[in-house]
């Protein structure tokens, strides 16, 4: 019996590993594209408006109640909340403003809140990060307390809007707003 040791690859034997490799790359790419098409449970949203000539932009993620008790439940009263889901909600002002009468320099900030049954603390903070895990009270720029009210009907998906001279937060059976004016 003789064993050949002078193997010489032909054109077809060289193409086979390359075509398998390219097929695998195409499969991985197509799976990642399909994964991006999947709807996020708490999708990103943007609230924009102009108050006294000042552009206000709020970037946040919208969690939904989905039959759960969120405010005072999953999001407990009396604890700092990132005011949405995923990343900390950001709020940006194109010019200097006053929030509930307190001065704030133009810029982009983290918007945190401390929900309560009857009142909420609105916190404008220097930090914009993932969640409220790295929240540091020392980085607060403004804290104001506002009354909580009720929307006209149940709000399934958390919503922030710029309405007239207020930033309005609505979710479940709660409506909270804070006044913004040009400084």
In words, what does this structure look like?
15% of the residues lie in helices and 42% in strands. With 183 residues, it is mainly beta. It has one domain (44-182). Strands 1, 2, 3, 4, 5, 6, 7, 8, 9, 10 and 11 form an eleven-stranded antiparallel beta sheet that branches. A hairpin with a 2-residue loop joins strand 9 (155-163) and strand 10. It is elongated and about 95 Å long.
Element-level helix/strand string: HEEEEEEEEEEE
**Average of the residue pLDDT scores:** 87
Strand share of the residues?
35-45%
* Radius of gyration computed on alpha carbons: 26 Å
**Structure annotation, total helices:** 1
Unreliable runs: none
Number of domains: 1
Question: What's this entry about, in short?
Answer:
The protein is mainly beta and about 180 residues long. About 15% of the residues lie in helices and about 40% in strands.
What attributes does this structure have?
single chain, 183 residues, mainly beta, eleven-stranded antiparallel beta sheet, 1 helix, 15% helix, 42% strand
């Amino acid at each position: 019996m003789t064993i050949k040791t002078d193997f010489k690859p032909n054109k077809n034997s060289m193409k086979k590993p390359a075509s398998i490799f390219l097929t695998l790359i195409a499969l991985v790419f197509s799976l990642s594209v399909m994964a991006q098409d999947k709807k996020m449970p708490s999708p990103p949203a943007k609230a924009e408006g102009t108050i006294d000539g000042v552009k206000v932009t709020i970037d946040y993620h919208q969690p939904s109640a989905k039959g759960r008790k969120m405010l005072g439940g999953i999001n407990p009263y009396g604890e700092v909340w990132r005011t949405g889901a995923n990343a900390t909600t950001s709020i940006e002002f194109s010019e200097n403003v006053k929030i509930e009468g307190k001065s704030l320099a133009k810029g982009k900030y983290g918007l945190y809140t401390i929900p309560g049954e009857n009142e909420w603390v609105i916190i404008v903070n220097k930090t914009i990060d993932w969640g409220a895990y790295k929240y540091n009270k020392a980085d607060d720029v403004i804290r104001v307390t506002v009354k909580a009210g009720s929307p006209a009907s149940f709000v399934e998906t958390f919503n922030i809007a710029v309405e007239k001279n207020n930033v309005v937060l609505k979710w479940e059976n709660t409506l909270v707003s804070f006044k913004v004016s040009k400084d």
